[in-house]
Amino acid sequence: MSEEKIIDGLRKAVVDYDEESAKRLANEVIEKGIDPLKAIQEGLVKGINEVGEKFGAKKIFLSELMIAAEACLVGMDLLKPQIPLAKNAKPVGKVVIGTVYGDIHFIGKRLVAMMLEANGFDVYDIGEDQPAEAFVDKAKEVGADIVGASALTTTTRLEQEKLVKAFRKSGFKAKIMIGGAVVDAAWAETVGADGYAKNLQDAVTLAKQLMERTREKVI
Ligand code: B12
Known about the structure:
Elements: H1 3-15, H2 19-31, H3 36-56, H4 62-79, E1 94-99, H5 107-118, E2 122-125, H6 132-142, E3 146-150, H7 158-170, E4 175-179, H8 185-191, E5 195-196, H9 200-218
Parallel strand pairs: 1-2, 1-3, 3-4, 4-5
Helix pairs in contact: 1-2, 1-3, 1-4, 2-4, 3-4, 5-9, 6-7
The structure holds cobalamin.
């Protein structure tokens, strides 16, 4: 099977709620040496976004969305370890990342964490449904340079505002970046975050820019 067919097969596996095919095709990606990141982004993520649109348009039920997410995760868990990590002697910076309180979505957050790791950052993923205080505590514990908060619903994105306030109150100086399907640059500005990124590439660029800004302050 060609690379295109395999990658499109991954997209289709998610759209068809077909965990078995997701597993089989992810293994084929590995065997054939296909770029795992390309397979995740152009296959699995494309698929879950298609399913999300159908769910948003009330064409499918939550139960269906859940099995599609399972198929996506099965593939992602197989492909993630195949992404080469940057071999820097010194980490580029320390990032604490999590999904905000009340929100259980983690696919995008996990991918962002993985990409940052692949680019030499030390990443501490505190998981999902995490209150602002948990981000502050972990950031203090590890001496984080950057804190990343993911929110996928219009209700839970309000937690990103609480998070910024909690950091200001704690006095701990870390740059805060936010992301998630329902937020944008304007929201980042509204809540007083230091930046927003809409996808994996932008998240890495933003994290590097925030590190520059951290260094400028020190000098
Ligand atoms: C998969 C999914 C689920 C899965 C989650 C599985 C999991 N373990 O993560 C399940 C089925 C469990 C689920 C549940 C729910 N979901 Co849901 N879900 C989705 C779906 C289809 C895809 C999300 C996803 O993983 N996308 C793929 C990843 C790669 O994209 P991403 O998360 O956006 O991340 C990218 C960027 O946003 C960015 N990014 C993300 N995080 C961060 C963080 C930082 C720091 C940075 C810099 C960047 C960044 O980079 C990522 C890579 O490009 C979306 C639709 C959509 N298109 O977003 C709906 C969606 C988010 N869900 C929605 C809803 C309503 C729910 C439920 C409330 C449904 C319900 N009635 O119970 C529950 C939530 C319960 C809760 N308390 O959280 C709505 C939200 C609507 C809204 N405006 O509020 C959406 C938009 C669907 C819709 N169209 O209606 N969901």
